[in-house]
Amino acid sequence: MPSVITIPPFPDDVPTVPLVVVDYSLILQRDSAEIERLWDAARSLGFWYLKNHGVDMEADAVFEMGAATMQLPFEEKMRFEQGDDGNSFGYKAAGANATNAAGDLDTPEFINIAHDDVYAWPKVVRRTYPSTVNERMESTMIPFVRKSTAVTHTILAALNDKLGLPEGALAQLHRTDEFSASETRCIKSPVGAPGAKVSLGAHTDFGSLTFLHNRLGGLQVLPPGSDTWKYVKPLPGHAICNLGDAVAIFSGGIVRSNIHRVMPPPGAQGQMERWSMAFFLRPANHVVLNALTDQSPLIADSVRKAQLLPGGRSFFTGETAQDWFMRRIKNQRIKNRTGPETWMSSRGTERVQTE
Ligand SMILES: O=C(O)CCC(=O)C(=O)O
Ligand SMILES: [Fe+2]
């Protein structure tokens, strides 16, 4: 199991980004100093560590589900492959996605489980999964997804207030009783050759909030204004949170969906398989990704200012969350590639960040 393997230390001679540590137990108590810390992180890099979130045991169980799933015969996993039409639920084989405009292939395998299927279990509402997932729906997936939904909604509520939105405005766009692309992903990356290329290509996240559980290094961010990728060092007992495109657009650019990628783990960690796992909170499928200017003067002001800048940005995509997500997934698939333009069609808000 990934969680009981001894992990070599993260090297101390690689560039890392110092992330703010947010204490979830204080956010839950609506501690204003802690909410301010979260607010600063959300607006500057859009990434932060989260401690005292209380989901570690459940996260370990999801890693165990991922390990059991990846051990299934390849043909069995391929019975649940996500396909090329823009759906991400199910299995994604290594090499199914491009990592850049040149069409270089990704190396990780994923198992993606739709939250809609977890909420509705034992009813199947989006798709079916391998037996290793079904057997753990009650023991593992339901507790993990319930707790992670609560954590991510609590963070969203704190951001909602700071954005000057009416109470519950963001929650209303992320209702758990409406279908969405929200999912839990367990990722296995094989041991790479030293100096191996990018494992998961540079991207911004497609939805609103990612709650990421990392054991090994490899995740990198490109901080605003920098041309050097920096590692995010995994810290025991700390999850990593980052904001995605949807909430950056809703906020009119006040909060940031920062570009990131995954490289083979650095130093001695490079000798190991890399496992990671993420809970992705995304808006309901029908929600249109536009800035919420009519609900917050702060957001209206931010959009006005952004549009006055040279090359002024629009925060009105007119695309639904479902179309935005499916376009991005579909155009990453190597089978759909016609040329560099396919990669460009897979892009979200990273279009305005350096790649
Ligand atoms: O594996 C990681 O550390 C990050 C994965 C990621 O960025 C993603 O799946 O969107
Ligand atoms: Fe990501």
TrEMBL record:
What domain of life is recorded for the organism?
Eukaryota
Boundaries of every Fe2OG dioxygenase domain copy: 180-283
Residue ranges spanning the membrane: these are: none
Task: Read off the SUPFAM superfamilies from this record.
Answer: Clavaminate synthase-like
Keyword Cytoplasm annotated: no
**PROSITE patterns given for it?**
FE2OG_OXY
What are the protein's UniProt keywords? Answer: Iron, Metal-binding, Oxidoreductase
- Identify the Gene3D superfamilies for this entry: B-lactam Antibiotic, Isopenicillin N Synthase, Chain
- InterPro entries recorded: DIOX_N, IPNS-like_FE2OG_OXY, IPNS-like_sf, Iron_ascorbate_oxido_reductase, Oxoglu/Fe-dep_dioxygenase_dom
Mind listing the GO molecular function terms for this protein?
metal ion binding; oxidoreductase activity
**Pfam families, sorted:** 2OG-FeII_Oxy, DIOX_N
For the region Disordered, what residue ranges are annotated? 336-355
Q: Does the keyword Oxidoreductase apply?
A: yes
User: What family does the entry list?
Assistant: Belongs to the iron/ascorbate-dependent oxidoreductase family.
Question: What is the protein named?
Answer: Clavaminate synthase-like protein
Q: What is the lineage of its organism?
A: Eukaryota, Fungi, Dikarya, Basidiomycota, Agaricomycotina
